[in-house]
Automatic annotation (TrEMBL):
Residues 41-77 form the HTH cro/C1-type domain. SUPFAM superfamilies: lambda repressor-like DNA-binding domains. Coiled coil: none annotated. It comes from the Bacteria. One of its GO terms (molecular function) is DNA binding. InterPro entries: Cro/C1-type_HTH, Lambda_DNA-bd_dom_sf. It comes from Paenibacillus etheri. This is HTH cro/C1-type domain-containing protein.
Length: 81
């Protein structure tokens, strides 16, 4: 696994939480992508990487699908819980 060479971006606030939750659940990116598809969100590996690195904007419907795929609340992703 490669580590990021650059600091996180500023395009979203959920990227670092997505990484932390996904890794805590021992879920690889490819497994997470497959899980996202079951919730109706089809994004590329590059797009997920950019989302996690906070270099990509996240749509509201994507936040909902990501929360469902990670089995957490939207509030958890937004740092409200």
């Amino acid at each position: 696994m490669r580590h990021r060479k650059e600091p996180p971006g500023d395009k979203n606030i959920i990227g670092t939480r997505v990484i932390a939750i996904r890794k805590a659940k021992r879920m690889k990116q490819k497994d997470f992508l497959a899980r996202l598809q079951t919730f109706g969100l089809d994004i590329s590996p590059t797009s997920l990487s950019r989302l996690e690195g906070q270099y990509r904007l996240v749509q509201d419907y994507e936040v909902v699908a990501i929360a469902k795929a990670l089995e957490v609340s939207v509030g958890d992703l937004l740092g409200q819980d």
